[in-house]
Amino acid sequence: VQLQASGGGLVQAGGSLRLSCAVSGSTFSINAIGWYRQAPRKQRELVAGIGSGGRVNYANSVKGRFTISRDYAKNTVDLQINSLKPEDTAVYYCNADGGPPYYSAWGQGTQVTVSS
C-alpha cells in the first residue's frame, strides 16, 4: 500500500483546509487509515482515524473542527480542517494499517502552517 498526502498550505487562523491522502496498492487489505501530525519538537500524534467499517475517532483537541472521510471510489481519505488555530501548525501524515501480514504504511507528509 502506498499513500500520498496533499493539500497543505499557509492559512490564517480561523481558516480551513482540506487534506487528501491518495491510497494505492492492495487497498482491500487496509484495516484503518489515520491522519497524524507532528509539530516541531513534539511527538507525532493521531488526530483522526477511520476504520474499514466507517467508524471514526478524533483526538480531543480537534473534535468538532476536523472531519475525516473516505471515498472508496476515488481511493482517497480526506481530512477537512475548519477553524484552524496556530497550534494546528504541523506536518500532517496519513497512515494505513492492514494485513495479514501486518503492515503500517506512511505517506510523505504535507505541511500545514497557521498564522495568527
Relevant terms:
four-stranded antiparallel β-sheet; mainly beta; globular; seven-stranded mixed β-sheet
Overview of the molecule:
The chain is an all-beta fold and 116 residues long. The protein is 0% helix and 58% strand. The N and C termini lie far apart (37 Å).
Question: What's the quick description here?
Answer:
This protein is mainly beta. It has strands at residues 2-6, 9-12, 17-24, 30-38, 45-51, 56-58, 66-71, 76-81, 90-98, 103-106, 110-115.
Note the quaternary state here: single chain
Coarse morphology: globular
Q: Roughly what fraction of the amino acids lie in strands?
A: over 45%
Rg for CA atoms:
14 Å
Average per-residue pLDDT, rounded, comes to 96
SSE topology string:
EEEEEEEEEEE
Q: Count the strands?
A: 11
Poorly predicted runs: none
The N- and C-terminal alpha carbons lie at a distance of 37 Å
